[in-house]
Amino acid sequence: MRGANLGATTIDIRLLGPFQALVDGSPVVLTSSRQRALLATLALSAGRLVTIDALARGVWGEAPPAHIRGSLQTYVMRLRRLCGEDTVVTEPDGYRLVVDPSRVDALRFLRTLDQAAAATEPAQRRDLLTSALAGWGGTPLEGVGSPALTAEWGPLLTERYLFAVEQRIDLDAGLVPDARIIAELTDLVAQHPLRESLWERLVRALARSGRRAEALARYAGLRALLADELGVEPGESLRRLHAELLAADTGLAVGATVPRQLPFDVAGFTGREPELAELDRLPPGGASGIVVIEGTAGVGKTSLAVHWSHRVRDRFAGGQLFLDLRGHSADTPVTPDTALAGFLRALGVPPETLPSTVEERSALLRSRLAGSRTLMLLDNARDADQVRPLLPGTGNLVVVTSRNQLRGLVARDGARRIALRSFDDRDAAALLAGSVGPQRLAAEPGAVAELVELCGRLPLALALAGERASRFSGVSLAGIVEELRDQRLRLDTLRDPQDAGTDLRAAFSWSYKALRPAAARFFRLLGLHPGHGFSLSAAAALAGAGLQEARELADQLAAAHLLNQPGTDRYQFHDLLRVYAAELVETETTETEREAALRRLLDWYLATVAEANKLVRPDLLTDDITLDPAPVPAVRFTQHEQTIAWYATERPALTALVGVAAGHGWPAHAWKLAWLLRGFFAERHDRDDWITTARTAVTATREAGDRTGLQYSANNLGSAYLRTLQPDKALEALEEARAASETGENTALTVAILSNLAGAYYVRAEYAEAERHALQAVHVARDQGQRTFVPHALLNVSASRIGLHDYDHAAEAAQAAHEAFAELGDRYHAALALGNVAEALEGAGRHDEAEKAGLEALAELKELNADYGTIDVRITLGRLNHRTGRTGEAGAHWAEALTVSQRLGDPRSTEIQALLATVPVERPPARDAPYP
Questions:
Q1: CA 20 to CA 5: how far, in whole Å?
Q2: Angle formed by the axes of helices 301-312 and 273-280, to 10°?
Q3: pLDDT in tens, 454-478
Q4: C-beta separation of 753 from 740 below 8 A
Q5: What per-residue string of b and e applies to 532-551 under the rule 16 or more CB within 10 Å gives b?
Q6: 231: left (phi > 0), else alpha (psi -120 to 50), else beta?
Q7: What's the pTM value of the predicted model, to 2 decimals?
Q8: Rounded to an integer, what distance in angstroms lies between the CA atom of residue 543 and that of residue 523?
């Protein structure tokens, strides 16, 4: 015992056996029984006040001295000399021992037992009991010298000790050899011969281990002892046990039928270490008598259950029962009465004596298995109602596997749930290695990674792919991957036509066919969603359902493991189930129904993206962006960060839906969605998605003859090319946009096209042409009263004039843009304009003014977390510092600009590397326009 730190002194008190006190780890000899009694009395109230009367009872019992206080003061003084001056504190009404209760072994013992009683996990309770009992040292308070303390505390501590021992022995069953338990109980009954609960455990342990004759002899000995000592018979529980022994009850008799029904163990079992560890922590019987292993088809539920059952079968003296309940299979599910009849026959009940009702058979099964420590494995359960009549009661362990979550079995019957998910990459590769060998895996790591991905890390799919690869040893793994890439053929490839049990499509179909019609339709239509995951609102839109109805249907699919639910109102398919749903929606729904569902989905996404743009790019919501009503309410956003988070989650679906709309001949949906996404693409630097969706929209609107849509789409594509510094492609797209808009009308879109043309010529270093287009954009915007577009055009005017070295006029245009943006509340573009002011002033040699503007712009952009905008400003500040002899500061700005540009994949990295490497003689190469 390490003791508590009390300043310079540590003290420990041991009362669970011979009395002992230790100070600083060394025993202290208390020769006086009064001193020992005093210290023990104080210790049993460690840290708390002990009154003078209580101390007197503990030290002197019923014969205290005439002057109690004076006598106690003397003993306390001597105690302080031995144990430390600060160990005993004088209080007005008594004394207090300054020691943590955990340093008094009796108090620590009781506290640990209380923790064990409160523990909900059997393994934790067993560990706590073992820890508490380890400190027991024999007769409590031995040598204390206080009859009063011994009378008060001795029976309490002894009873708590014996009860703890009995609890621990119960938990040891199946984990500790019976021989060891019997030896311990034999010693205990010798020490406590009248404690019947110990005798009962001894008799049961003997019978359980096959020593029935000894069990009967022990009972006879106890009966004689009780008659001689007390003139009574053993209690009811022991008498009932004796009757069971005499009747050779199945649960205990040596000659009884012991079922061994487990299927063949899985060869080369792979992975599942956390789940196996969790199962290992389940002792047989007790509060953890039921465990449900649930997961989707092919995830390995049966393999795990059978493998673990074989590992622990020796823990179950009553044997192992197994039954495939056929809850999800081509065959009819097993009914409870049929299952009960099979189990009872396996336990030796003659068929002609089987009861006729489910209730009677269930009761007989519970009687037969009561306390027998039998493992029951119920595979492929359909629902809780199929399982509940088969439960054997306490003293046994039931393992249930199911594709359903069996929520009622968890909520009502206290079942533990273990949810299986697909393998991680390591276990998936290990499973494949078992089929094809580690050498083939090592030779084609790229193919292995893609194969794992195409199989969705589903163990059954991986096993089938591995079997196929091993069967065609001359075919590379890349060849197998090529076969699986075609989604339409993937489930055909991952099957054994001779074995329905390894046909993934068939396995999925059994879960699908168990659904109610509305849920089955919901599942099919979800196969149209192009994303990996989807929200409840998106699912409701697809189905044409209200949110509450959609939530109920999604919950049915999640309960059947046809959908995963990673978060509140958020769902996703397993990859192969998505393939299956996509097959079903093509074969079991009409084209009209599919198109109606997709249009509802597109309308909802368009409405939500439009809502998001009220905070991201409100200028994109022009009069031409007219939308159909959303089938369910669009998402409402209150903060810019919410919109970005939503976009990041939905991005794969959003980009895919542009192609879906174009492919179905809905060009308006395609171009409007691509247009409204451009603000997100720009802010998140998703340039490839920007170009791809814009190009798709251009093709769709061009082929449909939609001139308005083509204006928007081609301008959008030109903007994307400008952002990636591809001015020639940008000019080509923008000229197509301008040609489509030549109707004599000048609109906001005309201004945007002219501004982007100015940007394209700027990047090509054709600054005069850039200025001409930018000024034209300013005039059109002013004539049309489009005050939000004027500063954007002025920004391009300033950039063009910087290129022409007309620095003073460039600064004026940039300052005007800055003021106009500030008036509009557009902080981001106001900061960009201020950056142009700094660049123009730096070119004009007005270094102090330039630095002031540049630092102000940089601070604003950093506050807005607009890293992209800081690149040009840092280039300008670096050049200014370099030209004024502050090369260190210049290098710091350029280094930071390089870090940001490389992180964002910005093409200006090469320019910045050149600035860092050499002192530029001429102005740096042209950059992208500030407002693409």
A1: 18
A2: 50
A3: 888 888 888 877 777 777 766 778 8
A4: no
A5: ebbbbbbbbbbbbbeeeebe
A6: left
A7: 0.61
A8: 9
